[in-house]
Amino acid sequence: MGKRKHNSAEVRKEALKSLYFAKLNNVPTSPRKMRLVADMIRGMEAYRALSVLKFSSKEASIRMEKLLRSAIANWEKKNDKTADNGMLYVSAVYVDSSSMLKRLRTAPQGRGYRIRKRSNHVTLYVDSINNENN
Question: What's the domain count of the chain?
């Protein structure tokens, strides 16, 4: 690895140390359905978002709830303190499309229709509320 590339990688690593996030890759839900759930909790206080996800009827909310719990745990691990109610908020949620499984469904008159089984990657960032005011 070249020196310039090495230096930029070190700068990126240092920047990630101040961010608190959790990632979930290859979720077998379409990105459109997952974005509906992500839009529900974006910018919300973390424990309020957990309760919203817990009582949501959407299937994608189960995975998002687990991811939010992981992001809160990552924040607690990096800061060596427990997150109290009203201390953290969901600063950003990104849902990106992933690879597609392409399948064929039989159709009339010897044809086949293509089915695209979509999946996605979700990245969820949390931050403390007092950092927002600084």
Answer: 1
86 φψ region: left (φ > 0), alpha (ψ -120 to 50), beta (else):
left
Residue 125 belongs to domain with CATH number: 3.90.470.10
Q: How many CB atoms lie within 10 A of CB 13?
A: 9
> How far is residue 74 from each of residues 41, 63, 78, 85, 102, measured CA to CA in Å?
18, 17, 6, 16, 35
Rounded Cα distance between 121 and 99, Å, is: 10
pLDDT in tens, the chain (134 residues): 789 999 999 999 998 888 899 999 999 999 999 999 999 999 999 999 999 999 999 999 999 999 999 999 999 999 888 888 888 999 999 999 999 999 999 999 999 999 999 999 999 999 998 865 54
The domain in which residue 62 lies consists of 20-133
Q: Which two tokens stand for residue 21?
A: 């996030």
Q: Are 34 and 120 in contact (CB under 8 A)?
A: yes
